[in-house]
Amino acid sequence: NRQSNESRGALIVLEGLDRSGKTSQSNRLLSFLEGLGFSVEAWRFPDRNTCVGGMISSYLANKSELDDHTIHLLFSANRWEKRSLMESKLKSGTTLIVDRYSYSGVAFSSAKGLDIEWCKAPEIGLLAPDLVLYLDIPPEKAAERGGYGSERYEQLEFQQKVSQQYHILRDPTWQIVDARLPMEDVEKQLKELVLDSVTACRKGKSLSQLWL
Ligand code: FDM
């Protein structure tokens, strides 16, 4: 067993536009780390299994209408309701691979025209990722990939705006991976980055909070 009481797991976040490959890659990273004997779980936001998540899900499916500020705060609340579980998993040595996080929250809401600083405010105090992997793809290329579903936001014009907001949010600590490459190439790059991060956390890198 490679776990010890002292070593914590890593908080690894995948971000990117719809159809950038986040979900496939997070599944691959999960199997990879499991194969190495690490304790690891794959999470995603929104987490549609809570009460708040149910409201978000109905909004995304166009079954309900909510003011832009209201849905923004629900997405944030959905992360807050998982914060303590997240912290205890990490502290007990479990690595979390998280498909979307606060950056999606800010990018999607600010793409509607909400002030970016206002969008960031409710995220303050959530756990900061140890690693942000951005799967970079031009919105037009993403749109070519088998088309979007029917959920709100799954339209090229809106995804172009989201892409611009992601560019504003990016900071030098993000790892930008070219998501147009073959899946196996993307996977190889992600595995290396993830292993480095998991190793740094095991060696004592401390947990911090948003936003830095
Ligand atoms: N989304 C996701 C937001 O608008 N804000 C958020 O905080 C998060 C986490 O919800 F269009 C958007 C992004 C996407 C939609 O995401 C649902 P999935 O990954 O398709 O479930």
TrEMBL record:
Transmembrane spans: none
An annotated Gene Ontology molecular function: nucleoside diphosphate kinase activity
Biological pathway: Pyrimidine metabolism; dTTP biosynthesis
EC class of the enzyme, as a word: transferase
Any Gene Ontology CC annotation: cytosol
Keywords from the UniProt entry: ATP-binding, Kinase, Nucleotide biosynthesis, Nucleotide-binding, Transferase
Entry superkingdom: Eukaryota
Name of the featured protein: Thymidylate kinase
Protein species of origin: Aquilegia coerulea (Rocky mountain columbine)
